[in-house]
Amino acid sequence: MQQQAISLLSLNELIKSTLDSHLAPTYWVIAEIGELRAGVKGHAYLDLIEKSEGNILAKIRGNIWSYTYQSISRKFESTTGTALKGGLKIMALVSVQFHELYGISLVIKDIDPNFTLGERARKRQEIISRLTNEGLIDLNRQYVLPVVSQKIAIISSVTAAGYGDFINQLDQNPQRYKIHYQLFQAAMQGKDAVPQIIQAIKQIEDLLVEEKFDLLVIVRGGGAQTDLDCFDDYELAKTIANASLPVVTGIGHERDESIADLVAHTQLKTPTAVASFILSGFREFEDSLHRNLVTIERRTQARLKSEEAGLSDKTHLITNLFRQKLNENNLSLERYAQQARRVSLYRTEKENIKCEHLEQNLRKIIDRKLKQSEDRLGQYEKTIDRLNPQTLLQRGYTRTEKDGIPINKQKLKIGDELVTYNKMDKITSLINKLETNEKQNR
Q1: Does 301 reside within a domain?
Q2: Which CATH number characterizes residue 201's domain?
Q3: CB under 8 Å to 57, separation ≥6 — which residues?
Q4: Local structure of 429: helix, strand or coil
Q5: Lesser CB count within 10 Å: N end or C end of the chain?
Q6: What domain range is 401 assigned to?
Q7: Residue that finishes a domain, picked among 119, 141, 167
């Protein structure tokens, strides 16, 4: 037989009455706040969820009415150090409410802040145990801190007060140490902090060969404990542990240390403490240099005195040896000088005799050559005298020319003017008659 149909309102009223009659007035429920929204009238509306391995297994709406929300939020924040927000795991006292129009929801009467603190501690310990089992807790401490860190990679937010304090302390150090630094911007709290800090570390790793950083520093100012939850993240801690540089943290909380502090090479409470730590390295190095200089100076002076004494002894010994050697050499030189003088005298005498013989031979040769030259000159003189025209003229011969050329070297004709020379006269004549010398032709 078909069941009689009812209206939707009737069904919802039946559900409401059934829930009211079968459920307890309140329950303590453990859930995670998925999202929390504040209403204009002071109420709070939130989604409560339960997850397993990232998957949502259950979800329900929740409400905290205005008066209750003010009381719960103040108590929760004073105990945990943070406000109620999405992502927190809570244990809440709730009553189940079903409304015919809006459906089922939970009205939150109270929240136990101690559970949230305990849950955070449990999750934190799980991460620490995992890092320990994977050998990451002490991994970054394998690096030896540089004696002086002159080039620093800084991960922080440029607007963070802690970053400004850190830079001011480095730049205005009384000793005027010069420190080069480069900021890699990242959020220091909230959901963007973890991926941005990891990305900044990777960026530093990529620039390490080119920039040659000595140290990686992570600094931020103080804040509520839950504002620092990002520094308890496993992936961030793993990235810090595996960094290729020693990592120094100055996150700025005094009461507790984050997991990032645990895996860092060196953890300090505040950014200014990190700056003081870096500058102390410079001071210790400078002091060490001064001590070494003093030690070197003292040892040098002692060595100089020792060497001066030894040098004096060696100088005296060398002087004596030099004088002895000089005397021996003087005796040898005297013997060599005497021998050289004897040899020189002998060779000089020998060469003198040879020169005398050469001189005699040279004189004979010169006399013979002179006699030969005189005889040859006499013959030349006779020949010249014989060939001299004046000699011929003196013997009665004449010389006749036409135009300055002897007549035997040209052809003559009647009318030519001739000039004839004898010993005393110059005779000019004209040719009136030319006859062939028959005797000469024969």
Answers
A1: no
A2: 3.40.50.280
A3: 50, 51
A4: strand
A5: N
A6: 393-441
A7: 119
Residues 181-211, buried b or exposed e (16+ Cβ, 10 A)?
beebebbbbeeebbebbbebbeebbeeeeee
User: H-helix or E-strand containing 406?
Assistant: strand 405-406
What is the DSSP code string of 75-132? HHHHHHSS---TT-EEEEEEEEEEETTTEEEEEEEEE-HHHHHHHHHHHHHHHHHHHH
Q: pTM for the full model?
A: 0.53
Q: For residue 240, how many other CB atoms are within 10 A of its CB? A: 27
Query: Any idea what the CATH number is for the domain that residue 58 is in?
Result: 2.40.50.140
Q: Are residues 101 and 47 in the same domain?
A: yes
Number of folded domains that form the chain: 3
Residue 207 main-chain phi, psi, to 5 deg = -95, 0
Q: Which two tokens stand for residue 386?
A: 């014989």
On whether both 88 and 139 belong to a single domain, the answer is no
31 close to 89: Cβ distance less than 8 angstroms = yes
Q: Count other Cβ atoms within 10 Å, centred on residue 387.
A: 9
**Which of 119, 142, 175 is the last residue in one of the domains?**
119
Q: What is the pLDDT along the chain (442 residues), one digit of tens a residue?
A: 667 888 898 888 888 888 888 888 899 999 989 889 988 888 999 999 998 877 889 999 999 999 899 999 998 888 777 788 887 888 999 999 998 888 899 999 999 888 877 777 778 888 888 999 999 999 999 999 988 888 999 999 888 878 988 999 999 998 888 999 999 999 988 888 999 999 999 999 999 989 999 999 999 876 555 567 788 899 999 999 999 999 999 987 655 678 999 999 999 988 999 999 999 988 988 888 889 998 899 999 888 988 888 888 888 888 888 888 888 888 888 888 888 888 888 888 888 888 888 888 998 999 889 988 888 898 888 888 777 777 777 777 788 888 888 888 888 888 888 888 887 888 888 889 888 776 665 5
Q: Is position 365 within any domain?
A: no
Assign 73 to helix, strand or coil.
helix
Q: Which amino acid is at 70?
A: Q
